[in-house]
Design goal:
Blueprint: H1 2-16, E1 20-22, E2 28-31, E3 54-55, E4 64-67, E5 90-94, E6 102-106, E7 109-110, E8 114-118, E9 121-123, H2 129-132, E10 141-148, E11 162-168, E12 177-184, E13 188-198, E14 203-214, E15 230-243, E16 249-264, E17 266-268, E18 274-276, E19 295-312, E20 319-336, E21 339-357, E22 362-382, E23 389-411, E24 415-429, E25 433-447, E26 453-465, H3 468-471, E27 481-484, E28 491-504, E29 514-526, E30 528-531, E31 538-543, E32 549-563, E33 566-581, E34 585-588, E35 595-604, E36 610-619, E37 648-659, E38 662-669, E39 710-719
Parallel strand pairs: 8-11, 27-31
Antiparallel strand pairs: 1-2, 3-4, 4-10, 5-6, 6-7, 8-9, 10-11, 12-13, 12-39, 13-14, 14-15, 15-16, 16-19, 17-18, 19-20, 20-21, 21-22, 22-23, 23-24, 24-25, 25-26, 26-28, 28-29, 29-32, 30-31, 32-33, 33-34, 33-35, 35-36, 36-37, 37-38, 38-39
Length: about 725
């Protein structure tokens, strides 16, 4: 904690004193890799333009959806988890009804199988994964790129379903000050400050600050559990760029986060005083007169530092070497009812690369890199009845190191090939030392028979160590017995193959009219299975070990600007996710939505003085767990006919008024006021309420919205650097 405070102070003092992105045509507009277009400290005039919110760039070899800065302003987008509502590629939902943790799904699988990148550095791994989406403020970002399928081997092979790369605001931005503030009717408030400063021709920096929280308690469905936890988050980052006349680039930065969460039950005493969960006094069998709220209390701290160095080896930069190093410390202190989970994680990532662009047609990259994760865990879980106590303490060391090569071939704009090979040795010191050599090939093809048509295909292998408890944080929001080995870090192994065809149509007010179809299949060789249905009131952790697990994913995208400044985007996704459980055979993967459809309409008046955004989504049904099939509502009606959740709509609306340097916006989410009727499963006590001490208690069975209509308002203030006269 002292390290975090000191680092935060250092960041504040400094303040007071490349992943490539393409536009609609495929041209490079920005880069945060080591090399690419330089964005110098130039005094500029400000021009108003219209940028697509979501689009598929023609120039990308891999099927990539870009959510631009304009797309990040279509909704409140307080953090990364709230930035995907206009996309059917990514589905976001709560992991449980207590912690507020959100998880994504890509290609019908949990977000743990999607590699998250912060400007080409792997992030949100291990302990930071459950809440990592909420630690990236939406207004810190310039864009998000969603790449489906097997991607490059350069950043490792943890991507199984794809990569999501985040582009942050740059030190070279011509915005000395940016402020964003928003407030919601659920009491959530969000404040972001960013300042990009060009100190001289060589040095530039950007300071990013964030504070947010939910400050009031709400229980709109009267199940005694807070709809959202009480939260308070502080987030501070400082990024630097040094550009030497010789072409050498150095990028480095630091970041510190503190996040506290209190969720679960809140009781009032005779004097109307509020009583929240207290892990020090909570007991499974309280005295009859005692107020004994069940809940969770989570405190996260994180510190990150990184450096990226690029050195050109010749004048035209066709040959260069680069070094990327990253270190993260994550501390998670958490309590859930009678369960304690306290853990630390030290993570390191490094990459050393040599790149040679032999000609316009041929380029290759070779290098070596790897990850190292050290975990210190203290877990204790108290049950009623049989098996009253489960504990483990220990240190685990997980890592991998490998060499890789990637060759890129271009034939004009018609054909591209990217072939990647990587040989890793995975190391698991989990009770005993294990060295696991693995070979990972990946191939990407792109073909454009005519200018209007782009065909893509890719495939390859993905590998990652499982961290069962934090990968499935919702299991803590239950009173069920853990069976198997929830501390087993098996090496998960999957192959993903698929492709995409996009037809850019010659009509509309812009050149960004297209129809796109893609299909991807992910098939597991080995996987950690978290089985809620193997035993009654128990959760079983076991390896797939030869059983089947696969997902087929189909998606159709259509985008058109029929008249100037009016954009229509329509997307539909269907997933067929199957898994073979220990005693059920091959079944549909539970709690996984079959389909999702999204319609987004945006209209802007001339000069973008007014902008109107409307989004409608239709969310498909999913198979519920067996123990949920007979659940009823307060009137005795069956909740899940045929063992499936209902199909439900969500509507979003936002209106933005733009002034010189100031945007004012108001909006609403979930206009249909749709809510999941019953969020908690389990036996009831004498008062008719769910009893958290019951072995059947489960608050992780979440498939729909927790809250109804939410209204918000906010402002964005931008101070631009203007041209000197």
């Amino acid at each position: 904690m002292k390290k975090i405070i000191s680092l935060s102070a250092l960041l504040l003092i400094s303040y007071l004193a490349g992943a490539q992105v393409n536009d609609v045509s495929g041209a490079i507009i920005d880069t945060t890799g080591i090399y690419g277009e330089r964005q110098d400290s130039i005094q500029t005039a400000v021009f108003t333009g219209h940028q697509a919110g979501n689009y598929l760039p023609r120039g990308k070899e891999i099927r990539t959806e870009v959510i631009s800065a304009a797309g990040l302003c279509k909704m409140a987008c307080c953090n990364l988890a709230e930035s995907f509502e206009n996309s059917a590629s990514v589905t976001v939902g709560y992991s449980d009804a207590v912690t507020g943790a959100k998880q994504i799904r890509l290609l019908g699988l949990s977000g743990i199988y999607t590699q998250m990148l912060d400007e080409n550095r792997p992030v949100m791994r291990g302990l930071s994964a459950p809440f990592g989406l909420s630690y990236v403020p939406g207004q810190w970002l310039e864009s998000i790129q969603i790449a489906k399928g097997s991607t490059s081997v350069i950043n490792g092979v943890e991507s199984m379903t794809g990569q999501i790369n985040m582009e942050h605001r740059k030190p070279t931005d011509e915005k000395p000050l940016f402020i964003n503030y928003s407030a919601m009717t659920d009491s959530k408030m969000d404040l972001n400050i960013a300042s990009s400063l060009q100190l001289n021709d060589n040095w530039s920096t950007v300071m990013l600050g964030h504070v947010s929280g939910n400050f009031a308690t709400m229980d709109m469905n009267h199940d005694t559990l807070l709809d959202d936890p009480l939260t308070l988050q502080f987030n501070l980052a400082n990024r630097w760029l040094y550009y030497a006349p010789s072409g050498v680039q150095v990028r480095f930065g630091v970041r510190a986060i503190r996040d506290s969460r209190t969720g679960g039950q809140m009781f009032r005493d005779a004097d109307n005083g509020k009583h929240f969960y207290d892990p020090d006094s909570y007991t499974l069998t309280p005295a009859a007169e005692a107020l004994n709220p069940w809940g969770s209390k989570i405190l996260n701290h994180s510190v990150n530092g990184y450096v990226k160095v690029g050195v050109p080896l010749n004048e035209d930069n066709s040959q260069n070497i680069a070094l990327v190093a990253d270190y993260t410390y994550q501390d998670m202190d958490s309590w859930f009812g009678a369960t304690k989970y306290i853990a630390d994680q030290h993570s390191g990532f490094f990459n050393l690369l040599y790149q040679n662009e032999v000609s316009e047609a041929h380029k290759f990259t070779v290098g070596l890199g790897g990850n190292l994760d050290g975990y210190i865990e203290d877990f204790a879980r108290l049950y009623t009845g049989l098996n009253p106590v489960q504990t483990f303490k220990g240190r685990n060391l997980l890592g991998n190191a490998g060499i890789f090569a990637e060759y890129t071939y271009h034939y004009d704009t018609k054909f591209s090939l990217i072939a990647g090979l990587r040989q890793d040795v995975f190391y698991n010191h989990d009770g005993e030392k294990k060295f696991l050599p693995r070979f990972s090939p990946r191939l990407t093809l792109k073909y454009s028979p005519i200018e209007e048509v782009v065909i893509r295909a890719n495939g390859g292998r993905g590998l990652r160590f499982s961290t069962p408890l934090v990968d499935n944080i919702g299991v803590f929001s239950t009173s069920k017995i853990f069976r198997g080995d929830p501390n087993s870090h098996i090496l998960e192994d999957a192959w993903t193959f698929g492709g995409n065809i996009t037809y850019y149509m010659p009509f509309g007010a812009s050149s960004n009219t297209y129809l796109s179809f893609d299909y991807f299949r992910t098939q597991f060789v080995q996987q950690m299975v978290v089985d809620y249905e193997h035993y009654l009131n128990q959760i079983d952790f076991y390896a797939l070990d030869g059983r089947r697990s696969y997902t087929d994913n189909f998606q159709l995208d259509f985008n058109v600007e029929p008249v100037e400044r009016f954009t229509i985007t329509l997307t539909a996704r269907y997933s067929n996710a199957k898994i073979e459980l220990a005693d059920k055979g091959l079944v549909e993967r539970p709690m996984t939505s079959r389909f999702k459809g999204v319609l987004n309409l945006q209209y802007a008046l001339p000069m973008n003085k007014w902008i109107f955004d409307f989004t409608a989504s239709l969310n498909g049904s999913s198979r519920v767990y067996d123990f949920m099939r007979d659940m009823t509502d307060a009137d005795g009606n069956l909740l899940y006919k045929n063992g499936r959740t209902p199909v439900y709509p969500l509507l979003y609306l936002q209106v933005t008024k733009r002034f010189k340097g100031v945007d004012l916006y108001v909006g609403a989410e979930n206009l249909t006021n749709y809510k999941q009727k019953v969020l908690v499963c389990g036996d009831t006590g004498a008062d008719g309420k769910i009893n958290p001490a019951s072995p059947s208690f489960d608050a992780s069975c979440v498939w729909g919205p927790l809250m109804g209509i939410k209204v918000y308002a906010g402002l964005r203030f931008t101070l631009w650097k203007t041209e000197k006269i």
